[in-house]
Amino acid sequence: MRVALFIACYNDALFPDTGKAVTTVLERLGHTVEFPMAQTCCGQMHYNTGYRREAESLVGAFNDAFRGYDAIVTPSGSCGGHVRHHHGTETAPNVHEFSEFLVDVLGVTDVGAYYPHRVTYHPTCHSLRMLRVGDKPLQLLRAVEGIDLVELPEAESCCGFGGTFAMKNSETSIAMLQDKMANVGKTEADTLCASDNSCLMHIGGGFGRIKSGVRTLHLAEILAATR
Amino acid sequence: MTNPEAKDRILARIRSALRDVPGEERPEDVAVTRDYRDSHVSADIVDLFVGRVEDYRATVTRVPEGQQVPAEIARILAERGVANLVVPPGFPEEWLAGYEGARLTDDPPLTAAELDASDGVVTLAAQGIALTGTIVLDAGPGQGRRALSLVPDLHLCVVRSSQVLPDVPPAVRALVPHRPTTFISGPSATSDIELDRVEGVHGPRTLEVLLVVDS
Amino acid sequence: MSGEKVNVVWLGSPTFPNAAHEALQDAQLRRNLKHATTTIRDKRLRAVAELDDWETLRLAGSQIKDRVMRHLDEYLLRLEASVTAAGGVVHWAEDAAAATRIVADLVRAQGTDEVVKVKSMATQEIGLNEALAADGITATETDLAELIVQLDDDRPSHILVPAIHRNRTEIRDIFRREMGKNGVPAPDGLTDEPRVLAEAARRHLREKFLRAKVAVSGANFACADTGTVGVVESEGNGRMCVTLPETLITVMGIEKVLPSFTDLEVFLQLLPRSSTAERMNPYTSLWTGVTPGDGPQEFHLILLDNGRSATLADREGRSALHCIRCSACLNVCPVYERTGGRSYGSVYPGPIGAVLTPQLVGVGSSEHADSLPFASTLCGACFDACPVRIDIPEMLVHLRAKVVDAHRQDRLPKPEALAMKGARVVFGSPRRLALAEKLGALGGRVAGIRGGRWLPGPARKWTAARDVPVPARESFRAWWRKAGRP
Description:
Helix content of chain C: 40-55%
Oligomer: heterotrimer
Structural class of chain B: alpha/beta
CATH class of chain B: Alpha Beta
Distance between the termini of chain C: 65 Å
Largest interface: B-C, 80 and 105 residues
Order of helices and strands of chain B: HHEHEEHEEEEEHEEEE
CATH topology of chain B: Rossmann fold
Radius of gyration of chain B: 22 Å
Strand order of the largest sheet of chain C: 3-12-9-6-4-5
């Protein structure tokens, strides 16, 4: 299968390891991954902040960059959700969030990963309520060898990131973050996993500030890890 | 006091706001999919009704049609200390045969203060709804006007098992719209303190239901 | 505390972030909200799970509302005709001032200067109590939570439970302090047990119900085909108001009309389970005009526009009018849970308030109203909970765009607008993006923000409690190219 990686702009600049991990997992499963160099940004941040005109002007280029692939895979639930719900283009329905792609399209839950840590999973809002990925990320994590997967209390509560909300309403955002961090703390996990680095950047930033030692890691990076 | 100009202006603004709606579209053209269930009930509706009414912390007594009805009514009223009972017009006389206290009839109409000073009221009902444990009154015979079943602190409501409908849709369809109608689900209650339900505010604080099982 | 309410919002309300700043400092408030919202959330999920056709009911509810909105003029005329035929009198009010004037005139025509009220969002919205007070008419709120707010001269903070921000001890203190000033005082030795507090409210209001000549209510529904009006409640105060007085005045937003009486079969399933998480609320009253010998012998229905027809004109914002005021979206909202309702500065708080308030008062009308669509993380919990499927997140984004567009011609663009435009330029070409990434990585290292702790300017809002992510030394794009991959 000829798979195009839609990395999402913030992963490109800030979290390249997630893109590498997606590539590693898909190649391990025998697929060819291509990275269309013409891709830039899907426009989610513009769209959700009210800059609809700017967002719409990015749609055509996205469609051009991703035309002709068997599938478009992204490690960002929120960007994947934005493209699928708002682009209205030929390529939009072909965009799959990483865990959806593995479970629904490839029919795989065990990708041969090994991660001997205590892990808890935060289902990010857009993957949960926009893409409706359900428990697919958990199915994948349960199949990881050596993992000690623990349930996160109040898992489905938003972490408070919300894109520009984190800046515009920073105090409310931080109040939500603190509750999320407290719930992660209750699990005594050393790793917090999610399917979106944008939320992890926010939660990880909070853990970094208090030097908690909790590591935040994208699902793809756990699935890419081996013995 | 009605203002025809205000009406015209509001309607004009609405029509202007709805310019996107094609002129030939009729209200009925807008699809409404009524695939929802007529009833969610598969079990015995009378048993369900009793359980659901009890869930609201109302008391339900089941009794077969006949002799036992007046005896049970008398027992409940005696146990609750009712000596001054509001009886709406059309309530079956034979069902009060065992009751020995005073009666307040609504002819001439009782004042709110008289109702407030009574010990309770006994009424019939228009229907029951099993799934939600609801009693419906529609001011029909034996039910009285709405104030009668509202102001007294105890309401003894006699429902026949044949009046119990399974669920909300059949109940709504059986109503007569122009009658003043009250749905009663348990005694009065509030969730206004910390969103937790407690019984007993302005409506009757005690709801007794006597379910007469028709032969 | 109560301030001056003018048409939906409170005059001089701060923007949402500023109001939230105050609310977030109040630890008691946050505990009260957390307790109440989590209690009701779990209960609602259980109540909804009992109906296996819940999604079908939601869809039907949303379609019925859609039908009403697309033909609102016709349904209002049908309603007017059927209410009139049943002996009621219908009035049309364009705005808050017109509606309050009609009510005041009707009350005075009855030769009384006091009314009892059933909790109603429409009368909250038009500031009816304040307007009547200015005319020398005392309006007594009879819903328990509404009474608590009124006694305390406070502002409501929730659609269903206006005093949700108060716990039982605070309520006891308000009752002890205030009840005696206007009627039957709280009994000696009043405790903070909810049952005891409810009993105190019963005693306080009883005499007011029994002597009231005029009541004012809102309406949950009005059926166009029969003229039947409905009020859904719990305590029996609604029944008291719509039954005992000689005159009943109902103020209803024009969007509350339903096509037919049988549509109640949908909404009487959706509303109780979504609002108080019950199979059925304790009391629902339905009345049609006037019934000789039973209840008020004079019935007035005031149809209120007050910004609704303007809301109707926005095709993407229109469905905010579908709201049946259940407040499920407030109870599930993570923002509301932290900030409480008063931070929204409107009688309509929470997610639905964030889309309804700016539309009713007009986008661009104030900094406060324009800040409301941004008071959300777009987490989507509100849409999932909404019994009539209002896509609140999508509408929030739509209203954000309207706010942004309203400021595009500003002489002095906001830094955010410049940043968004700048980002658009960078994203306009992969080459520009690659260059920017390189500069970002370099800049990050030069500025030494690795492990970034505190940044100046607007970025301070991020670094107040969060470290900054540092741009990678090498972007994914650069790595891919270097590796010679496809």
